[in-house]
Amino acid sequence: MLRDKLNDAMKEAMRARDQAALGTIRLILAKLKDIDIAARTEASREGVADDKILSMMQGMIKQRNESIVLYEKGNRADLADKEKAEIVVIERFLPQQMDEAAVEAAVREAVAAAGATTVKDMGGVMAALKAKYAGQMDFAKASAAVKKALSS
Fold first, then answer.
1. What domains appear along the chain, each with residue ranges and CATH number?
2. Are 129 and 142 in contact, with CB atoms under 8 Å apart?
3. What is the pLDDT of residue 143?
4. Tell me: the pLDDT tens digits for 17-44?
5. How many CB atoms lie within 10 A of CB 106?
6. What pLDDT, on a 0 to 100 scale, did the predictor assign at position 11?
7. Whole-angstrom Cα distance, residue 109 to residue 111?
8. What is the pLDDT of residues 99-149, one digit of tens each?
9. CA distance to 13, 100, 139, 144, 152, per residue, from 122 (Å)
10. How far is the C-alpha of 134 from the C-alpha of 103, rounded, in Å?
């Protein structure tokens, strides 16, 4: 389970005195705790599933990429480098990212499986892709590929 891997990695970073990795892993765990609390119901006290954790970490990477652009515009290379280092740590916990050809193949498969023919069917195709490939693909690029496949 991904949650266990994160906790083990935090302990390892503590032993190795790797402050950069430790800080980033603590950020991931804090965000995960917030999501767990938000997802709690009266009937269920369990944490969120791994696919939600992967999605959360993808969002964290996206935020850092946006920050890097802003820091570089503001001539703050030190802060941009810190964000890049955090991305490297977060990516350690994500599955291998799919290349462009694999994304296009997955999109074609999902479009065929959903029987999608128009852009109006895009939501169902994207939902299927997110369920099957959480953490493995950039869904902004996948969305563009789905739109392209359905409009042609």
1. 2-91 (1.10.1510.10), 100-151 (1.10.10.410)
2. yes
3. 85
4. 999 999 999 999 999 999 998 888 777 7
5. 20
6. 96
7. 6
8. 888 888 888 888 888 887 888 888 888 888 888 887 778 777 888 888 888
9. 42, 19, 12, 10, 13
10. 12
Q: Which two tokens stand for residue 26?
A: 């603590």
Is 82 in contact with 121 (CB distance < 8 Å)? no
Alpha helical stretches, state H, the chain: 2-16, 19-39, 50-73, 77-91, 100-114, 122-132, 139-151
- What is the identity of the amino acid at 82? K
The model carries a pTM of 0.72
Q: Whose structure tokens read 């996206």?
A: 62
Question: Six-digit token pair at 71?
Answer: 């820091």
CA dihedral for 53, 58, 62, 65, sign (positive or negative): positive
- Tell me: pLDDT of 45 over 80: no
